[in-house]
Amino acid sequence: MEAAVLRYRVMAYVTGVVLVVLCFVGIPLQVAGHPAVANDVGVVHGILYIIYLAAAWLLARGLRLAVKPTVIMLLAGTVPVMTFIVERWVTRRFINPALAGEARPAAPVGR
Amino acid sequence: MENTGPGDATVTETPAAPAGPPGPVWHFLLRPRWLGWHLLMVACFWGMLWMGDWQFRRAMAGNALSWAYTFEWPLFAVFAVVFWAKTIRDEFRIRRGEMPDPRAAAEAQGLPAGVTGTEQVSVIQATPAAAAEGDEDEELSAYNAYLARLNAEVKDRGRWHGLR
To answer: Is position A52 within any domain?
Structure first.
């Protein structure tokens, strides 16, 4: 569970950073006539996104997420800055409750 | 077709489907909402393959960058099929009672429908039980307040209206 969360988180941030670089550095440079950055970063993001898909998918399966949050998680890797927002949302809404439940199984109170 | 769920040909008897209409279990796949999802999936699948083909033509025309996307788009298409098959398989398991229904569990507990599982039960139980006990330590009551806040935060927001 923690491993899946960590994998997802790392991929969310790495993919997000690369996508931000692509969109806010690569594309302007491409428009200005220097397409090299956009080309290379674009390919890198393509490969990273596949890994991100796998990581997000495995976490969503583990959390037994419904289809809608799962799709939001998966597509977040294609929208600039969205991975960061979705990662926070998923953490607050799904990961933290699941981890809290896992940490204290049967006994209601007491530690 | 890729949207055919695994095992739908074999299910012919009618176990107690939760609040479902009579008939074989797989009939839920023919409901309008599901038909809409099927159509969407078919469109996505062929759309992705078409994008792959488009990139392949670009690659053949000399755009070396397109080679990466030539392989990526079909991969996405396959991924969509896997996603779809797993979703339908889960739905079958729920309807056969082999898996707890996250929607029912969520409504019973006031939890977001996306979150399921036995682990959630303890989270909710912790709050009233803690309220009953008067002498818990400060850290614990802070934790219980956190749980209550989490629960209040997600309450009624995550009700699932569509396909699970």
So the answer is: yes
